[in-house]
Model the fold of this input.
Amino acid sequence: MNDRGLFRKSILGLGLAFLYVPILSMMFFSFNNSRLVTVWDAENSPTLRWYVRLFENEQLLGAAWISIKIAALSASGAAILGTLAGLVLTRFGPFRGRALLSAMTTAPLVMPEVIMGIAMLLLFVALEQMIGWPEGRGLLTITIAHVTFTMAYVTVVVQSRLAGFDDALEEAALDLGAKPATVFFKITLPLIMPAIVSGWLLAFTLSWDDVVISQFVSGPGSSTLPMEIFSRVRRGVSPDINALATIMVLIVATGVVASTIWMKRQERKRALEEQMARSDTP
Amino acid sequence: MAERVVDRQNQYLRIESVTKRFGDFVAVDNVSLSIFKGEIFCLLGGSGCGKTTLLRMLAGFESPTSGRILIDGQDMSGIPPYERPVNMMFQSYALFPHMTVAANVAFGLEQEGVARPEIERRVREMLDIVKLGEFAKRKPHQLSGGQRQRVALARALIKKPKLLLLDEPLGALDKKLREHTQFELINLQEQLGVTFVVVTHDQEEAMTLASRIGVMNKGQIVQVGTPTEIYEFPNSRFVADFIGSVNMFEGRLIEDEPGHVRIRCDDLDTTVFVSHGISAAPDARVFVAIRPEKIEMTRGQAAEGENCVGGVVREIAYMGDMSVYLVRLDGGRTVRVTIPNIERHEERIVWDERVVLRWQPSSPVVLTQ
Done:
């Protein structure tokens, strides 16, 4: 019994180590004083030197700001288009071309990014030659490209939420005199909001760390953060990248932990309320 | 129960030869029906009989393939659900989970553009009627099943619809609560004078709620009548069998007079004498239906005369208020008999006793279809 317990614990430890040792070592070395990322300077460490350097690095900060803008814009675009696609696919019955639309909206989930990137680049170049828009490549083209591939994720999330949606709720609203548009904004939208928000977050993350597609459709002065990191690493890893990565990991981890705690709490509150309702008199 | 104010002159809802097809499947087959103002009309039938489709056509969620529906004289063709003077209470209640009880009830009035103070007043009134005044600020998940049912009812009634449609209104409640709610529903209907159309598969629910019942089978209305008419004078084998339990015997008319008939049944050793005339061809095959509670059972060996057969008790189910006996007749058929348990100390008939079954000449119903 004890042996088995020990065995299980060591397997768990190994699994966690496999997943998190790389990240932890990266965070650890961000406090290293040495110029060389892999050599620990025991005398002068730990230090916040690289963090200070990072905030003096206009280029990296600028790239981070561009990335945030692109991620926010493309996630919003993807949330709107993905919600519409999800609605059409679940609510409009078996119309002509439904299977095709369904396959096409979700295709980017499995499409190699390199191909998406080339296709986008060729399209933008051809468009520019034909109608003069988009002028050159930059923020706009990256955002459009990101919308096309992140939209698929939002569609899938919204679609699954709508599939579990009681149609009677919309019918009840219609029955009470609400016009279809009112039904959508007062009933459907608030109820699928959690799915849209998680779709938005997913799209934001995907856009935030995309390198391949951005690489194809970016232009001068529109390097995103991952592109910037990538090009720096090719010239040799410098410790301020570690510092930057550490900050990013901390932000994400805080967000995940906070939302998990909040959801757990909501769940517990709801379960309690439901229990109280059951014990009430009819 | 107080007598309902049903205006039999006023055909409030008229369904005129309505048919609904889904592809090749005929869900509702040429149904014509009139429902009077102020009554509770129950559409009763098994699953897939078309009752829900008919109700959804009244609400406007489906449109008839042919035929038309008139409410208070107004043709409903092409009128969307949000413009019909009809409200519906859904089987799942369909309460909006993100709104409070008060907001759920207020929703219909908000769509009409009623002024805020007026909405608040009417919502409060309605919640008081369904005894939910103190729950106004709760969300649906904070309510018990019975409370949710009453919120759904309040929400459907607040616009004072000409017609309230109820889809299995008591289906999601447990047995004790159902009985209680049934009578509440009737009281409320009398108080507000709204015409109810109820869809249900539960015959008990239909019998207690309805002023009239329409029995449906395979998309068609088989019989329309008061609960008593449906139970005591079923017009077909389907209705006799569907409502309550019945002993059915196939037989042949051997004597056909205006005041009485005699029937020879294959499974009975006696002729059945019925004290009323029927309309059937001489020598026709007919079915004799006798309800279990209309058969008298006594201990005894010999069965003599008409409407009288002998048998042996095979099964007894003691239910408290009454007992159900399954009696094997000498001819081999098994007959169901229910006996009320009037005496506490009586020596009840037990397994394997020989009994004689007898019924009044007025009890059997003779069916030709």
The first helix of chain B runs from residue 51 to 59.
